[in-house]
Amino acid sequence: MKKDTSGKTWKDSVALRWVVLILVSGLMFSTYWFQDFFSGLKGLMESELGFTSEEFGRLIGFTTIANMFGMIIVGGIILDKWGLRLAGLLFGGLAAVGAVIVALGSAGFFGEDKSVMLNTMILGRIMFGSGLEVVCVVCTRAVVKWFKGYELALAMAINVGFGRLGTALGMALSVDIGKGFVTPAISFAATLIGLTLIMFLIYIVFDIKLDRQVKGQNAGNNLEEEEEEDFRFSDLIKLITNSSFLYIALLCVTFYAGVFPFIQYAPDLLVNKFGFSYNLPEGQGNFILFGSTNFGNTMVYVGLFIFGLAFSMIPSKRKTAAGKMLAYLVIFAVFYAAIYSMRDTLSLWLQNGPKTASLIPLGTILFTPIFGNYVDKKGKAASLMILGSFLLIFAHISLSVFNNVILGYLGLVSLGVAFSLVPAAMWPSVAKIVAEKRLGTAYATMFTLQNWGLGLFFWGIGAVLDLANKQNLEAIRAGEMMYDYTIPVLMLVVCGVVSIFLSFLLKKADRRQKYGLELPSGQKPE
Ligand SMILES: NCCCC[C@H](N)C(=O)NCC(=O)O
Questions:
Q1: Topology of domain 232-279+352-526, per CATH?
Q2: Whose CA is nearest to atom 14 of ligand 1?
Q3: Ligand 1, from 135, 136, 248, 420: best to mutate by most atoms within 8 Å of Cβ?
Q4: Which residue windows are transmembrane per the record (predicted)?
Q5: How far apart are CA 252 and CA 79, in angstroms?
Q6: Alpha helices, H only, 225-342
Q7: What DSSP character marks residue 277?
Q8: Cβ contacts of residue 315 below 8 Å, gap of 6+?
């Protein structure tokens, strides 16, 4: 093979870096989709498969079980030893096989008895869950490998954005994809993981090439290869005895326990409490997927919007003030026209439980980078975590205690803002508290603890829902009554209260330990 003597590697090419980002983010998209798409199918699982709310909760709760008992740490060790290519294939493959087992289980392939179906689906979800979190770590490592020294923060935000898009589309579209049945929706979600695994295989070709180029460069310059730090248990001990880390790790448990599990039940809550629908009226509202007279218009708007956005991103030095103004006007006008022309569809969507609930993860794609930018420029990370926890409390109170649909919408919006605010402030703060060489261990530890909170509440909300409605379960199944969600959602207020307490402790500990969480990025306390 001809030797490259230019001194450049593939990661020095902007185009190749972004191709890599898309290839890697595919797995984020599909695994987040598979993690969260059941939320749109809860009603169908009850009517078609006969699952109770507790069984639904058990099914999603068991996804976290292997991670609670150290799978993320094992995955991290394998990632360190075998590298990200093999680790990605192994854990992506595990997630894919698990997803296929869930689909087969739901189709009655292993037996048509309800308990056989439930248990085989649980087995599949356990396998899927064992792959899911390590896949996230592998994808993040790959993004760091290609973007360090370039647009790293933006690339990381886009990578998580793909995950959130997977969550949103999985929630919003699974009922339509299943066309009234659970198995087709699960098979579709499992196929997505398979397809994105093929994207990862293509990524591996790029990764091998980059490694060869870097090796060649290092040999040419007589440089040692950069050694990555392996996982060490002594690092773990150092981390959990650091009070700032302990508070932020516990905050990660309580905050996410108040958000991710809620999202799994949000469509069902909207249907039962506020009278939203699970299905759109026949043939209406699905213009994006299935084409209608609106489809052409939408594409024109999307095209113009991207044009305006791309123009506004050209560095300001290269364009005049009038040009800039024009670009913003184009974006605003297109946005307005798009919303106006889709008003009928949008009003149908806003009466549909899964589609309305999917706006929560969708909104975070836009708001997390905006808040991230604020944290970078102005700091105030610990204070923003306090604000996010407060919004979480407001959201859960307005969605549980009151029966007012406007308050319900306000609750969803404040949950969306909190879900953007806290991650935007939390993850960069971990990088300030923990030395770079221990970051891998820090994230693995936080995700492991986080999975305990998730598992408990994924299952707990369903179990408490059945318990709180014990007297009426027959009537609810017969479609004569609706679930009362007050107690299961009110329970989540506790997560918000503990989160506020922990964020105050974090702010206080930061004043003592001087990590500069309240300062802009790059600024150190005196
Ligand atoms: N439903 C996605 C599960 C992955 C969760 C992951 N441990 C995490 O917390 N990622 C950060 C985030 O804000 O999504």
A1: Growth Hormone; Chain: A; (1.20.1250)
A2: 160
A3: 136
A4: 15-34, 59-79, 86-110, 122-140, 152-173, 185-206, 245-267, 287-313, 325-342, 357-375, 382-402, 408-430, 442-465, 485-506
A5: 23
A6: 233-240, 243-274, 287-290, 293-313, 321-341
A7: B
A8: none
- Encode pLDDT of 118-177 as tens digits: 999 999 999 999 999 999 999 998 998 898 888 777 888 889 999 999 999 999 999 999
Q: How far is the CA of 32 from the centre of ligand 1 (A)?
A: 8
Nearest CA residue ID for atom 7, ligand 1: 447
Q: Do domains 10-214 and 232-279+352-526 have the same CATH topology?
A: yes
Q: Is the CB of 39 under 6 A from ligand 1?
A: no
Name the residue ranges covered by the structural domains of the chain.
10-214, 232-279+352-526, 282-350
Residue located nearest, by CA, to atom 8 of ligand 1: 447
Closest approach atom of ligand 1 to CA 164: 14
d(CA 451, CA 434): 21
**CATH number for the domain whose boundaries are 10-214:** 1.20.1250.20
Confidence (pLDDT) at 343: 77
Tokens read off for 513: 């330990």
Q: Whole-model pTM? A: 0.87
10-62 pLDDT per residue, tens: 989 989 999 999 999 999 999 999 999 999 999 999 999 999 999 999 999 99
Give residue-wise pLDDT tens across range 303-348: 776 766 666 666 556 667 777 777 777 777 777 777 777 777 778 8
Gap from CA of 363 to ligand 1 centroid (Å): 16
Residue ID of nearest Cα to ligand 1 atom 9? 447
Angle at CA 308, nearest 5°, toward 322 and 370? 100
Strand partners, 352: 277
Q: Is the Cβ atom of 162 under 6 angstroms away from ligand 1? A: no
Residue nearest to atom 4 of ligand 1 (CA): 133
Ligand 1 centroid distance, CA of 163 (Å):
8
Q: And the tokens for 42?
A: 């809860």
What pLDDT, in 10s, does the model give residues 250-280? 999 999 999 999 999 999 999 999 999 998 7
